[in-house]
Amino acid sequence: MRRPGRGAWPYLFLTPAIVLFTLFLAVPIAYTVYLAMHRTRVSGLGLGKGARREVFVGFDNFAAALADAELWQGWLRVLGYGALVLVVMLGLALLFALLLDSARVRLARFSRIAIFLPYAVPGVAATLLWGFLYLPSLSPLKAVLDVDYLGATTVTYSMANVAVWGGTGFNMLVLYTALRAIPRDLYEAARLDGASEVQIALRVKIPMLTPAIVLTTVFSIIATIQVFTEPTALRPLTNTISSTWSPLMKVYRDAFVTGDLYSAAATSIVIAAISLFLSFGFLRVVRDRAFREG
Amino acid sequence: MRANRLGAALAVALSVTCVSGALVSCGSGEPAGSPEAAPETAAPQGPVKLTYWAWAPNMDKIVKVWNAANPDIQVTVSKQAGGDDAAAKYLTAAKAGNPPDLVQAEYQHLPSFIAADAVADLKAETAPIKGEFSDGLWNLVTLGTDAVYGVPQDSGPMMLFYRKDLFDKYGIEVPETWQDYAEAARTVRKKDPKAYLGTFSSKDPGAFTGLAQQAGAQWWSISGESWKVNVADEPTRKVADYWGGLVKEGAIDDMPYFTPEWNKALNDGKLLTWPSAVWAPGVLSSNAPKAKGKWAVAPLPQWNAGENFSGFWGGSSTAVSARTPHKAAATKFATWLNTDQEAIDLLVKEAAIYPATTKAQSALGEAPAYFSNQPDFWQQAATVSAGARGFTFGPNVGVTYNAFKDGFDKALQDGTPFSAAVRAMQDVTVADMRKSGFQIAP
Fold first, then answer.
1. What digits encode the pLDDT tens for the residues B183-234?
2. Which chain A positions have a beta carbon within 8 Å of B114's beta carbon?
3. Residue in A235, A241, A256 closest to B92 by CB
4. InterPro entries in the record, alphabetically (chain B) (predicted)?
5. Which pLDDT score, from 0 to 100, does residue B33 have?
6. Nearest to B115 among A24, A42, A241 (CB)
7. Option in A29, A45, A232 nearest B12 (CB)
């Protein structure tokens, strides 16, 4: 028996990856595309055997998804929410990372874990926890600031708060790790030149951190576009979150509440396209600045 | 039966991974038993194994009794989250080709199951037990057609649950008409500005459906080969505007049912009534344990004095999957579960349901523990049940119910008329049916 030739070896090693990729990524995506181009058609009452069949409809579902005003309003809501989360969460993460990295901080290890800990709380649990704090008759927060935390406008801030609470720790850790990798002699040189701690942070640390900041921003953009857990878990508690509050919620509603897998497939492809566009667009804008030396 | 909302939210969130991946990754896997599998007449290989999706509490205990007596048909219960989520899950599983053999199907979801060709016609197998159920309930599993798509299990006739102690304290009579109810609502606001007589929940289309049924609504009906859809009919608009008016003038509250806030209001005596169904004692005892013995039950207020109508909130049947290779065995179990005296006694005792069979409804003994102060609880239920009227549910109730939630959420938020939300429900329902190609009568 001949052993496989030299040329076959790489493929042999690649096989597990290719099989897994095909089974769990390529096939589902292909099936989603297939679903997105079909629709069921029923005849008469639509009851009993054979009353329902699947027909090819081309790009009809995509056209319907793109023409759906509710979906675009969902995008607008998510954009506002995302801008809020992105700025506050990444700003706090950067601030905490810089503080923890500074030489004079006390209880650094404890603070690091304390800030990171909320990230370990599952999103649903975190949202329900905050949900109880927001409910008017139960809320202890009401004594601090007497507003309706689940009102038509405030609900966006309340949800952003949950995301910031849960996400800051992770992003801080990424930035902090990147900070620790910066050679210490750079700071020494800056100090010899007479730079203060603040100046070192602004002029040395942040520029050196740019690749990590870009990375966390891209991750956060993708995460906020896909926001689902917070509004879905808060929805039973308030009248202010509709079933199509975010684009992904609309996909969920179409697929599992109103039983229209075909529209859901088309909408999820539209969402994927938009997130790709936004993340790559952002990368393009900042690439030259961030990765010049790389 | 209603599962806790937060539990449902958790279940939803658990399936997030499915959505954000690709739609299909949730429903992969080979069918448990393909339809072309060997017919049952072939020599049986050991006992028939059936899976049963249900969410009624303690169903596993009841099934244990069956399994002990029927070694050749072994049933395994898989506990579900309940309500709309369970229906969505079953439809997805059926579409993916691996549904359970048996499923607890709420009456309003059964037409969606039928339209998706997910449940079997049990006409021949159930012919002997047809007489054990009232025509109204039987109609809910046949949709008025010749086929039979499930065995009725329980029903949820609606009644008015009220805080007897606080009614006495504030000098309020039990309202006999909805006009009385509105007056009582205003009185409560005057006596205790922090309390309400009731609340309108924009999260519970089932409750609203029941109230519309009481008023005589007929949202769907079948005439010949086409559907008649009339969600915004006159009785429904009347009910909607009645509640809309009360919310607008501040006579009743607008917080949703089954939230921590609602529990607190019930416990603290800040909510005096709950127009709910016969299964309410179970909910009250777990959500408002502090108020045990303080609640009482009366028939729903009527639209015209002297009438005796009610509607249904919830209630479910046991349906058999269209794909099961063991249809006969599954039907045998479903029949036992819902008509055998021993099984019904267990259903009442363990699962706390109000059984669908006529003979069982009249033979219920002791009142639920939470209502120990009301020994005639089941007699009341039987009386109410006799006057309860339902309607045929359409093939896209999920769409209609979702439109209810979004429409009434918006109406409460913007202060717009409730009848506009009802019209939106009608438009969304018809548009969805047209899109799929259902024949709709003008």
1. 999 999 999 999 999 999 999 999 999 999 999 999 998 888 899 999 999 9
2. 47-48
3. A256
4. Bact_solute-bd_prot1, SBP
5. 40
6. A42
7. A232
CATH architecture entry for B32-155+314-364: 3-Layer(aba) Sandwich (3.40)
A67 touches chain B (CB under 8 A): no
Question: Which pair of tokens denotes residue A121?
Answer: 């709380």
The residues in B 28-67 lying below 8 A from A, measured between CB atoms, are none
Best probe of the B interface among A54, A128, A137, by most B CBs < 10 A, is A137
- Predicted complex ipTM exceeds 0.85: no
Point out the residue among B23, B261, B432 whose CB comes nearest to the CB of A35.
B23
Q: Is A68-290 assigned to CATH 3.20.190.10?
A: no
Mutation choice for B interface testing from A128, A248, A256, A269 by most B CBs within 10 A: A256
Taking CA–CA distances from A44, the nearest residue in chain B reads B439
- How far is A122 from chain B, CA to nearest CA, in Å? 10
CB contact under 8 A, A31 and B23: yes
A257–B202 CB contact, under 8 Å: no
Q: CB-based contact (8 Å) between B258 and chain A?
A: yes
CB contact under 8 A, B112 and A248: no
Sorted by where each begins, the domain ranges of chain A are: 6-58, 68-290
List, for residues A213-262, the tens digit of each pLDDT value: 999 999 899 888 889 999 999 998 888 999 999 999 999 999 888 888 89
Cα–Cα distances (Å) from A72 to A131, A155, A225, B377, in that order, read 26, 19, 13, 52
Contact B117/A123, CB-based, under 8 Å? no
Q: How crowded is the C-beta side of A107, counted as CA atoms within 13 Å?
A: 6
3-state secondary structure chain A: CCCCCHHHHHHHHHHHHHHHHHHHHHHHHHHHHHHHCEEEEECCCCCCCCCEEEEECCCHHHHHHHHCHHHHHHHHHHHHHHHHHHHHHHHHHHHHHHHHHCCCCCCHHHHHHHHHHHHHCCHHHHHHHHHHHHCCCCCCHHHHCCCCCCCCCHHHHHHHHHHHHHHHHHHHHHHHHHHHCCCHHHHHHHHHCCCCHHHHHHHHHHHHHHHHHHHHHHHHHHHHHCCCHHHHHHHHHCCCCCCCCCHHHHHHHHHHHCCCHHHHHHHHHHHHHHHHHHHHHHHHHHHHHHCCCC
A114-133 residues touching B, CB cutoff 8 A: 123-124, 128, 132
What pLDDT is attached to residue B115? Answer: 87
**CATH of B158-312+392-436 among 3.40.190.10, 3.30.390.50, 3.40.50.2000, 3.90.800.10:** 3.40.190.10
Contact, A289 vs A282, CB < 8 A?
Answer: no
Please calculate the CA angle B305-B309-B311 and round it to the nearest 5 degrees.
Answer: 140
C-alpha span between A112 and B48 (Å, rounded): 57
| Residues recorded for chain A | 294
pTM: 0.85
Q: Give the residue on B whose Cα is nearest the Cα of A228.
A: B16
pLDDT of amino acid B222 = 87
